Amino acid sequence: MPDNQIKPTGSLDRIPSLDFLRGTAILGILFINAENFAYPDSWSPWKYGFETPADYSTRFWVYFLTQGKFYTMFALLFGVGFMAFLYRLEKKNAGLKALDIYAKRLLWLFVMGVAHAYFIWDGDVLYHYAICGLLLIPFRSIRNKYLVLIVLFFACFPLIKSYELTTKRQKSKQEYLTALRIVESKRTKEEAVKIGSWEKIIEKKSPDTGYVAPKRPTYWEGLKESYGHVKVHKGEFYYQSLIFSSLIVMIIGMILYRTGIFLNYRVWKHYWLIGISVLAIGLVINYIRFYHWTYEYYKPVTNIWQGYLFTFPKEILGIGYILIVNGIYQKFLINFRIKIISKIGRTALSNYILQNIILGLIFYGYGLALFNRFSRVELLGVVLFVWIIQIVFTWLWLKKHNQGPLEWIWRRLTYSSFIKKVVK
Q: Positive or negative CA dihedral for 43, 45, 49, 53?
C-alpha cells in the first residue's frame, strides 16, 4: 500500500499562454507601483514629479495605458488559475482534498501577502486576492450563463456608488451656485464654507517642486508606518473599495478559462473581432477618463452618464489586453526562442516581491533615499533598470531551478501534508 503524493503542477502541465500573460502583467504593473514608491502623492495629476510639459504627457500615457489594467490582468488570471488548479486536482482524483489543498494554498498566500504588506510594502494585494479566492469557491460549479448574471449583479454596486458620488458633487455645485448669488455681506458662515470648498476643487494648481524628506528614514520607522496603514491586525482582511471589481474580473477569468481560449483561441469563431472590439472600447473610455484625470482634474464629474462611463475603464481595457495578448502569443510567439517574459510569468510571485524590495531600496530612507527626486519622465528609466534586474535574476535562477524561490516555498507549504493512499 505505497504512498502516492499529490504533487504540484509540473512544467508539462502548465498552460504556456498563461505564463506569458503573467509575465506581461508583472512587467507592466511596475509602471504604477514605481510611482507609489517615488512620490508623496503618486495619484495626484499635478503635485509631484512635474517639471516640464513632457512630464504631464508621460503621466497621461502611463495612466492611460497601465493604471489598473495590469492589476485587472492579475485578478482575471487569478480566476483562471482558480479553475485550472481545481481542474488539475480533479484529473488526479484528489476528490474532496482538492478544496483542502486549494484552501491551504490560499492560507499561505494570505500569510505571505500580510508579511509583504507589513515588512516590505504596504500596498500589497496578495492577501486581498487570497480572501477573494475563498469567495470564489461557491461559484466553481455554477454554469457560465449564470456566472454572467452574477457578474452583472456585482457590477451594480460600483455603479450605485458612482451614482451616489456624482449626485453628491451635483448637490455641492448647486449649493455653491446658490450661495454665490447671495451678496457677500449677507452670506452665512456655512455658505462661505461651501463657496470656498467648491472653488478649491475647481482651482487649477501648480506642481509642488519643493524638497520632501524621504519616506521611511529607517527600516524601523517603515515598519511603524506599515503598521499604521495596513489594517489586517484590526480585522480588515481585504480592500473594501476593490472587492466587487476584483470578484467581477476573477469570475470573468473563470468563464474565459472554461471556454478554452487559453489553450486554443480559435475555439471562438470571431475571436479577433471580439478581442479588438473590447480593446478599442477600453482604449476610448480610458483615453477620456485619464485625459480628464490628467488635464481636467479641476472639472469635477457632475454628469451621471460620465460617472458611469468612468466606473469600469481599467477592467474593460485589462480584459482587452488579456484577449489580444493571448491571441498574439498563440498565433505568433509560442515558438519564439526568447521566452524571458514567460519565465518571468513562471516566477510571478518571486518577481512581484523582488520588484518592491528593489523599489524600497531605491526610494526609501533606509536605502538610497531617492524619494521625490525623479520627474515623471526620468522615472521611466528606473522602471527599465528594475526590468533588467528582474530579467537577469529570472534567467540565472531558472538555469538551475524549475521554479522561483517563493513559488517553491509556497508549493512546499501547500502540498507537504497531503498524501494520497493508493491500494494496488
A: positive
